[in-house]
Amino acid sequence: MPRTIELLLTENIENLGIVGDVVEVKPGYARNYLVPLGYAVKPTEGAKKALAARRAEVERELAALRKQLEDLVEKLEGFEVTLERSCNDQGWLYGSVTQHDISSALREAGFNQVTDRHVRIGAAIKRIDSYEIPIQLDKDLRTEVKLWVVADRELNLGRSDEQEISTEEEGAEGAAAATEATEVRADS
Length: 188
Description:
Elements: E1 5-9, E2 22-25, H1 27-34, E3 40-41, H2 45-76, E4 80-85, E5 92-97, H3 99-108, E6 125-127, E7 129-138, E8 141-151, H4 157-187
Parallel strand pairs: 4-8
Antiparallel strand pairs: 1-2, 1-3, 5-6, 7-8
């Protein structure tokens, strides 16, 4: 059995090709997915000629889409988005900010073509801070937007420091008292 087989695509398949491309794929992929769903056929001259007009139309659509994505990259360049979240006094979020949250905020700002897949963060954001978020619209169309994650209330940073200091002082006083009590018992 051959390791790969050639097929003529009748539909655009992401990461494989566009209408009219002759591609080599594994037999199982062809047998179980492409051929049964009508996405590909055997590459004959008649089939190639029949898809020539559709291929030209798809190429025009892809060129128009590419132009739109290039314009979108220019508009996104230097754009800033702010998300307000609940957090503790140290700036740790009670939830997290995900790529879905960022793409939703960008869509609300008028960038309707940005989807969750385009937002490239390594892990969910869990702290109040500013971040440079990569947006990749195509293999070679990439930009970054500035994300500000801010607290939904005024943080009381001073109070938590004072509490820690007073707790440490109480702990030191308590330790000294315990040491004195131990010394008194030893003397008795």
